[in-house]
Amino acid sequence: LSGLDPAQPYFQDTPIEVRLDKSDADFVDVIHTDTAPTIPNLGFGMRPAIGHIDFYPNGGVEMPGCEKNAVSQIVDLDGIWEGTRDFVACNHLRSYKYYSDSIIYPDGFLGYACPSYDLFQSGSCFPCPEDGCPNMGHYADKFKDKIKTDMMKLYLNTAESKDFPLWRYKITVTLSGKSNVKGYVNVALYGSDGNTKQHQITKGTLKPDNTYTAYIDAEVNVGEVTKVKFLWNNNWVNPTLPKLGAATITVEAGENR
């Protein structure tokens, strides 16, 4: 059974006979996309973990792309009729959109087991363990025989519009150069299955010999990394023409370490 943002009003904190529960089937997976309190935030979805595995994309409260103003969002979405309906319950309805995207991307929507979304964002629960990570949505049941705990909360990030899946990488850059520079460092990944756009690794004071780490959610699963593009910029013309390079760049894919 797959729960697509099971309803909160009249169901949250009720006995298991009333609401969805993992005792309802051999395997129950749940996608939570709208878990803010119904009063006063109008959250329609249940917050507690109630399945064998529970996914909380983007933390489960506010989905990217749902915070736009009404007009731009309705125009962005699937026509005026569906767009108007989505605006009223955008977070809640993301659950079925993620699920339908998951059918097309068997390797997408990897959920990382983690105590909280903040810890996931900081990289504490990266990479996937030896057994791998479950895929949110249609292929979640591939993980059925690997569950070792009573409750498994899983976190991941998604894009703000279709196509929704993102792939998580840890990128570590050690800088080389002669002097400190203010600015930012971007990195793009090139691989056997595609290339990413540029992702910012750090900004502020860039110090040669220092190492900077960032976790990026890339819009492509690049497969085997063949090339890394390194770009830095200090946003203004510096008459001393500082030079900055990368001594080393390490890329770790969350899926297979």
From TrEMBL:
Major localization class: other
InterPro entries found in the cross-reference section: AB_hydrolase_fold, Lipase, PLAT/LH2_dom, PLAT/LH2_dom_sf, TAG_lipase
Pfam families xrefs: Lipase, PLAT
Keyword Secreted in record: yes
GO cellular component terms, semicolon-separated: extracellular space; neuron projection; zymogen granule membrane
Keywords attached to this entry: Cell projection, Cytoplasmic vesicle, Disulfide bond, Hydrolase, Lipid degradation, Lipid metabolism, Secreted
Highest taxon of the lineage: Eukaryota
Subcellular location: Cell projection, Neuron projection; Secreted; Zymogen granule membrane
Domain (PLAT): residue spans on this chain: 167-257
SUPFAM superfamilies: alpha/beta-Hydrolases, Lipase/lipooxygenase domain (PLAT/LH2 domain)
Biological process according to GO: lipid catabolic process
EC category: hydrolase
Pathways involved: Glycerolipid metabolism; triacylglycerol degradation; Glycolipid metabolism
Documented EC number(s): 3.1.1.26
Membrane topology of this protein: Peripheral membrane protein
Catalytic activity: 1,2,3-trioctanoylglycerol + H2O = dioctanoylglycerol + octanoate + H(+); 1,2,3-tripropanoylglycerol + H2O = dipropanoylglycerol + propanoate + H(+); (9Z-octadecenoyl)-glycerol + H2O = glycerol + (9Z)-octadecenoate + H(+); 1,2-didodecanoyl-3-O-[alpha-D-galactosyl-(1->6)-beta-D-galactosyl]-sn-glycerol + H2O = dodecanoyl-3-O-[alpha-D-galactosyl-(1->6)-beta-D-galactosyl]-sn-glycerol + dodecanoate + H(+)
GO molecular function: galactolipase activity; lipoprotein lipase activity
Family: Belongs to the AB hydrolase superfamily. Lipase family.
Protein name as it appears in the record: Pancreatic lipase-related protein 2
